[in-house]
Design brief:
The chain is an alpha/beta fold. It is 39% helix and 23% strand. β9 and β10 form a beta hairpin.
Length: 463
Amino acid sequence: MQRRLAAILAADVVGYSRLMERDEAGTLAALKAHRRALIDPRIAAHGGRMVKLMGDGALVEFASVVEAVQCAAESQRDMAARNAAVAEERRILCRIGVHLGDIIVEGDDIYGEGVNIAARLQGLAAPGRICISRQAFDQVESKSGVGFDDLGEQQVKNIVKPIRVYQIRLDGGVAPPPAAAPAAIRQDIRYCAAADRVQIAYAAIGDGPPLVKTANWLNHLEYDWESPVWRHLLQALAAAHRLIRYDARGNGLSDWDVDDISFDTFVRDLECVVDAAGVARFDLLGISQGCAVAVAYAVRHPERVRRLVLYGGFARGRRRRGSRKETEQAEALLTLMRLGWGQENPAFRQVFTSLFMPEATAKQMQWFNDLQRITCSPENAVRIRTVADDIDVSDLLPRVTTPTLVLHCRGDAVQPFEEGRRMAAMIQGARFVALEGRNHLILEDEPAWGRFLDEVRGFLAGG
């Protein structure tokens, strides 16, 4: 038997029995989707360990109570945003309790008064709210970036002494991580329902002419802001535009448990996001596989797209290029995903990271390794990659009438330079810019970044 001090988070679903009685299959599916799309990634991002799931409840251990509280606050905010598009009687609301205390560890399970107090705090919390103990409050009061309401001492079942309880004031804001976007342009995350009722998470940030970025491999609306791989691009774009982006179905903050992952649903999801964001005419940015989605949208809705920017893209997926070598490579990468994508050991994901950013620093590679695991399940990674490998929008390219800029790195190991050049050649009047570099995702400290930014800014500034 082992004892240790730990931060314990206990959570349960409000009115679970009522929801199950009303729609058992739908409730189970929704709860699973919430866990996979919101809760599990939050826990992983804050270094938590899921101890056990108990029907409608969960018990999570953290080494840091600050991380536990921030995880709880961010999760409740995510749930509130996600529920905005759901009928009130079908909404899944959670109550959360957080305590810092002594626990007993036996195998993978934990017991003791620390666990019991966390569970009692959860029971005191109102739907969609969080209660924490005085022990937790003393550690996080000036560190968590949230406000608190003192609920006084509460006598709870099977605990001899009263517990001083504090409720987190969720409208007080969660402090952004050190590398997040500046507070002046904090992003606004919302959800829209696709035609098949899949919840798609999207975000708008910044002021200026609207610029919509299509989803690509792989995104997470919040973690991308912290990432040394993405944040320089997102901040640069949001500084001059109202940047609208979204997580594709099957990854990030969008629903993970979905029946249909296909190229057509990717295009229809973009249509859903644009309509929900309320932009009538906008510039459209596609990166990597997002280029094909952007092309398809521009052909379907030429009146809405003012200018089209395509970077690192392709019209034909690996299995559509007539190359036996590329087809074999596509199958090999899918096999790697099936075998080891979800493992803690990043060796399998490192293959993808090395292809995407061969010149990245160790820190940048570690970020991308972790980002891939957090934002997508192994099953969905295979499904999304399979769709990408089968894309072919070659017949749509000559039908693009929107002014178009195509950029591609000469040494790109993920999508060959020739594919970018071919795409530009098939779009009438498209301008093609060859960038010097080997990274598929342009990093801030490489020469290609400055050229990329100058070209995109100049092109979008045109009438």
